Amino acid sequence: MGQLVAGWVGVFTDSVAPELTAWPMVVLLDSSKFFRLSNQPAFEVMFAYGYDAGPGGTQGAGRLLKAVAVKTASYATWTSFINSTPGSPLTVVSDGDTNLVKAAQANWRTSKHLRCTWHWADNLADAVRKDLEAARYTLIGIQKHPLFTDTSNAFQSEEGWDLYKLGLQSEFATPGSGQASTRWIKANEPIVLEQIRSRGTRPPIESTAPLESHIHDFRKVLAERSNILCNKARTNLLLRLMVAARQPNASTRAWTELLLVDLHTNKSRTKSDQRALVGSVF
Fold first, then answer.
1. Measured in whole angstroms, how far is the alpha carbon of residue 85 from the centre of its chain?
2. Alpha-carbon distances, residue 119 vs 155, 261, 280 (angstroms)
3. pLDDT tens, 29-63?
4. Would you tell me how many other CB atoms lie within 10 Å of the CB of residue 24?
5. What is the pTM of this model?
6. Which of the residues 24, 43, 60, 78 has the least number of beta carbons within 10 Å of its own beta carbon?
7. Residue 154 DSSP code
């Protein structure tokens, strides 16, 4: 049965899950690592989620665009991922991964790159947690402290940012305290303020959270199978099918009709050659 499914994936994916033809107005990017049973790295999957242009901004709900497996998500593989589809989005949102950001800036020169505010809030909360631990707060005290629980408010506006900074200064007024949060603020404040000030000139989407939910679902399906997913080409065809299955128009009937049309067009032969997938490994 497993070989039958693998063969079906190899020869029919092109018929029901065509490649993305153009990048939409807003693109969210992220990646996730998968491991073998030996705890050795197996591969990484790079993901893209997007929103189309519409009257006055983006149109409707976003959708999962692409998922591509590579040995390692590097500058080179992100560059290949970006250039595999024509066009350039107006804005790109990511968690700030260095290789991803550099590739996006180098290849989408006209796009504005934004940091995910959810990740920002989480990273700032982690810095504050370290400072509260150093100040001898208990675990419950940290979990209830507003500087730990309300970091998202700091990224809502310039006023919210300034107010949060005042809270940090008040809490960590003792010399030598608050070092982790101070370093985080110093390193990120220029980018934070520039992103806040650019609101109103671009689509308001600033979080990769919609993409994270898809990544979570993909992990549930693939994590236990990553030890046997060694054929790179076939794994990527499988990922294309998984992406296609999450589109609003996906259905058994629609896919059956596409298969019948392609078989009729190609005189009962498949588009793809299964043998071409042999030997392609991570």
1. 16
2. 11, 45, 35
3. 999 999 998 889 999 999 999 999 988 778 788 99
4. 21
5. 0.88
6. 60
7. G
